[in-house]
Write a structure and sequence with these properties.
By secondary structure, the chain is an alpha/beta fold. It folds into 2 domains: 1-42, no CATH class; 45-242, Rossmann fold. Helices cover 40% and strands 14% of the residues. It contains 11 helices and 6 strands. The protein has helices at 2-18, 38-41, 70-74, 90-101, 108-119, 121-124, 136-142, 146-158, 181-188, 199-202, 218-229; strands at 81-87, 128-131, 167-169, 192-194, 206-214, 234-242. The strands form 2 sheets. Strands 1-6-5-2 form a 4-stranded parallel sheet. Strands 3-4 form a two-stranded antiparallel sheet. Helix 11 links the parallel strand 5 (206-214) and strand 6 (234-242). Helix 5 (108-119) crosses helix 8.
Length: 248
């Protein structure tokens, strides 16, 4: 056993020498897989408390525990809680677009760590972890659902049950880009549902929905509405990044 372990360590060192580990963002040499170099790490804006107790929006000031932002007070979301790992800035966009459209699937290990950190007890208490669904036509064009890959990686890391086919898009919706909150809600009305035959799994369950980028929250809110209609006990959301007003 020790001999095999030693051989594996030697083999890893040989591979690392031939193919040195690279920063996820800039390609500089780093010490471990799925890491950022010090320069890029400083450009990553991790979201931390204080945040809105409902949607996870970071407050620009010290907030009282349990404080809720004005948006959630005016329009309470269907989900119970949402949290995001990163602010969607230039560096986060580079990482996510590379993963989403550049087939950089080696980003997944780091992304799963960040999602687990931001989700905290929501992830640890989840009965089911599912992704925001893609319509079959869009899935065919993209070849994979990036949110499903994130959900599977998070579920594996947290030892939770992954249910990649729990939700479906019943119709192909136009792109959400450029739409305001009201338009996004209308665009998604009736578009997302629990897959036929899966309502028994949802009933009474604590579900975590995973998305790559949360903008207004309209998409994950539509997912939460569908899950709540099917009898979910709780619906929480974990996103890799979220757009925060005043950032890029």
């Amino acid at each position: 056993m020790d001999v095999l372990a030693g051989f594996g360590d030697i083999g890893r060192r040989v591979v690392d020498t031939v193919l040195p580990l690279r920063c996820l963002a800039c390609g500089a040499i780093v010490d471990e897989i799925g890491a950022l170099c010090p320069a890029c790490w400083t450009g990553l804006e991790l979201i931390a408390a204080p945040v809105c107790a409902s949607c996870g929006l970071p407050f620009g000031h010290d907030g009282e525990p349990g404080a809720v932002c004005g948006g959630c007070l005016a329009h309470p979301p269907a989900f119970d809680r949402a949290r995001a790992a990163l602010r969607y800035n230039d560096l986060a966009a580079k990482l996510i677009v590379g993963f989403k459209r550049g087939d950089r699937l080696h980003h997944l290990a780091a992304f799963a760590r960040w999602l687990e950190r931001s989700g905290g007890s929501m992830v640890g208490e989840a009965d089911l972890i599912c992704p925001v669904p893609l319509h079959p036509v869009r899935l065919w064009r993209r070849r994979y659902n990036q949110s499903a890959l994130l959900a599977n990686a998070l579920a594996k890391r947290a030892a939770r049950r992954s249910t990649p086919d729990l939700l479906v898009r019943r119709r192909a919706t136009p792109s959400q880009g450029g739409l305001n909150r009201r338009q996004r809600i209308e665009n998604l009305r009736g578009a997302i549902a629990v897959r036929r035959g899966r309502t028994d799994a949802v009933r009474g369950a604590r579900v975590v929905v995973v998305d790559d980028v949360m903008t207004t929250g309209a998409t994950v809110d539509a997912c939460a509405k569908a899950l709540k209609r099917a009898g979910a006990l709780r619906v929480d959301v974990v996103a890799l990044a979220r757009v925060v007003r005043g950032t890029t």
